[in-house]
Amino acid sequence: RGGLDEWVNAVSEVVHLRGLRDLILVGHGVTAPVVLQAGALLETPPKRVVTFAGVIPKEGRVPLSVFPISVRLGFNILNLMNGVMRKEMRMPKAFVSHFLCNDMHPFDVIQMMGWFSSIPVGLLRSRVSLDTLRGMFPVTYVVLWRDHLLGPELQRTMAARLGEVEMVEFNSCHQVAIEKPKEIAELLLSYA
Fold first, then answer.
1. What pLDDT is stored for residue 110 in this prediction?
2. Mean pLDDT of residues grouped by 10 in the chain (192 residues)?
3. Residue pair 74/95 in contact by the 8 Å Cβ criterion
4. pLDDT at residue number 165
5. pLDDT tens-digit readout, 40-71
6. Tell me, what's the pLDDT at 84?
7. 24/191 Cα distance (integer angstroms)
8. Are 55 and 83 in contact (CB under 8 A)?
9. The predicted structure's pLDDT at residue 116
């Protein structure tokens, strides 16, 4: 429900309370600004921050602004309808199938539908300052080739907004953690 600052504070608090060190912070999609900003604020910087199709808007813009107009329009309509009905906004099945899980076997999509919870409206509408995302740690940006939500060229453009980053490319849809868990594990272990 909360905005970017609340998400960043939650990550920072967990790291502090648990005394975590030698971290690799990982973000996916709209959580990329969260892990990047949290990493920049930590007393001990993370060993690395890895983002998968990380949503990095232009300076001072909101994460929602990077999505295709059809997604933004659908988001605004659903948000309005859910506000009237006083319900949390959830992802429609058609959106999950077409944008998030494209090219995945329908059986795999059905098995994971329960993983999609309410949409982080506050995070999507929080303005992002690119200066707050830059810290004293290396960043890896993973481009997902078959992502229908954020095409690979858009992902490369967003990665460039971070300055110097290591670029890695996966042949995956947007839901890389479900489609390519072994490849993710191998990548993350290579930084450990």
1. 56
2. 91 95 94 96 95 97 93 79 64 57 60 60 91 93 93 97 96 87 96 93
3. yes
4. 97
5. 999 999 999 999 999 999 999 999 999 989 88
6. 67
7. 8
8. no
9. 54
Residue 148 β-bridge partners: none
Sheet holding 48-52, edge to edge: 24-28, 48-52, 139-144, 166-170
Q: What one-character-per-residue DSSP string does 84-119 give?
A: HHT---B--HHHIIIIISTTS-HHHHHHHGGG--B-
Q: How far apart (Å, rounded) are the C-alpha atoms in residues 117 and 178?
A: 15
* Residue that has been written with the tokens 């993973």 in this structure: 142
pLDDT for position 121? 80
- Pair 55, 66: CB distance under 8 Å: yes
CA distance 55 to 29: 5
Give the DSSP letter string of the chain: ---HHHHHHHHHHHHHHTT--S-EEEEEGGGHHHHHHHHHHSSS--SEEEEES---PSTT--GGGGS-HHHHHHHHHHHHHHHHHT---B--HHHIIIIISTTS-HHHHHHHGGG--B--HHHHTS---GGGG--SS-EEEEEETT-SSS-HHHHHHHHHTTSS-EEEEE---S-HHHH-HHHHHHHHHHH-
The one-letter amino acid code at 70 reads S
Handedness of CA 173, 177, 182, 183 (dihedral sign): positive
